[in-house]
Design brief:
This protein is an alpha/beta fold. It has 3 domains: 105 residues, Rossmann fold (3-Layer(aba) Sandwich), CATH 3.40.50; 95 residues, Rossmann fold (3-Layer(aba) Sandwich), CATH 3.40.50.10800; 80 residues, NadA-like (Rossmann fold, 3-Layer(aba) Sandwich), CATH 3.40.50.10800. The chain is 45% helix and 16% strand. The protein is built from 16 helices and 13 strands. The structure holds iron/sulfur cluster.
Length: 304
Amino acid sequence: MIRELQDKIIALKKEKGVCLVAHTYQASEILEVADIKGDSFQLSVGAQKVPEQTIVLAGVRFMAEGVKLLNPEKKVILAHPEAGCPMAEQIAPARVAQFKQDNPGIPVVAYINTTAELKAVCDVCVTSSTAVKIVSRMPENEILFIPDCNLGDYVQRQLPDKKVNLWLGGCHVHAAVTEKDVLAAKKSHPGAPILIHPECVPDVVKHADFVGSTSAILDYAAQSDAREFVIGTEMSIAEHLAYQFPDKQFHILSKKLVCPNMKITSLMDVYHAIAGTGGDEINLSPELMRDARRPIDKMIELGS
Ligand code: SF4
């Protein structure tokens, strides 16, 4: 049944000239038929390099907006219209605009996991893998980091000479992991490197052998000689790694690491989005496209 649907999707993509991009937190059956897989920024950049003029994204809305911002001439469709990310939508843009008005000279750094409206009032975007590098290259000594206070805290610890003001936001999935979970994992899997995403709380991150983005965790596990790992990010990453490296063992740091927003998209949703009978096309006004693109361009400039 899954195989049949996958075959139909592969044929339909070709017939309709569609490129399917899927975030690494998506289910395996979707990733197996995706043309581009990766984190949100990798998907946006990857979509620029393909000839297809229609991009279907399996992920959440801010990612589809990100693809649209970097591919304004392409048609971008979010496979499941209701796939959102609570963290991306956590802050009203007007509150950030007010902060800027009250604090001239303090730039606002936005995690890429934000809506286009929110990006539009910020100065520079960062990904979890580039946050430290980009903030370190900014000329200002003080910044406001939104929306994830845990990633912001991580940046602050790496850059003690900077003052990183935090917003009390974050990813509820990663923030649900506790120090008790890490201590239990260490006890159950002694010696296994613990790889943790910086969206986890500082009391969890401090026990990590490696802190990195989803892609960095995948790369670390692929290149390491260790045979056993504890994975501290959305549980699909441990599943994908186990599938890719059957001779290594991957343990989930906590069973709480499941993102319901990422799991809402089914293979059937992907089929309908490609067939033109489902999904939601991303439409952003020209002004929003211009304003939300600015901090992304700044990120590319500072990150390269
Ligand atoms: S894992 Fe967290 S940041 Fe990622 S989509 Fe889910 S809620 Fe949003």
